[in-house]
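Running this now, will post back.
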Amino acid sequence: MFWLRDKWYDILAFIDMGGPVLWAIFILLFVMWLMILERMWYYSFTYPGERKRIINEWNQRTDTTSWYAKRIKDAKVSEASIKLRSGLGFLESLVAISPLFGLFGTVYGMLNVFDIMAIAGTSNARAMAGGVSKATIPTMAGMVAALSGVFFTTYFKRKAVVEREKLEDRMQSH
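Update: finished.
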């Protein structure tokens, strides 16, 4: 149990080294991963039941060849597609904002460096080291956060297209 407390203190020390902007990146990353987990849950557990229900409703129809039936099919596929893509725009926005938060952390850290230079009156390397770490750590954290989200947004967008096509193919006329 002590190792868990030690790891928590290591995380807090890392966040302290990066300055207050790192807290914002941490919160942004937490929300991003909540969204990723929600989409994983939807694709793995919720959508298969919805897909089965839609296909069963379609197969129970007697008329599947008329113009009206094709419009119903299009509507059901569109509704499923909207649910499949739900939240992906917000997730993409979080991915896009992450590096910007990192750059904001860079600016914040460099302001600390300039502040130290103004107070010390010289360019003392030891005095500036804290500000430089506050400048580089948020940049790195913002980029890592964005990279972790890019993979999943690409995967989810592709999965939504594939699932829509599969649903449309399974709703055959009979």
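The chain has a mean pLDDT of 90. More later if anyone needs it.
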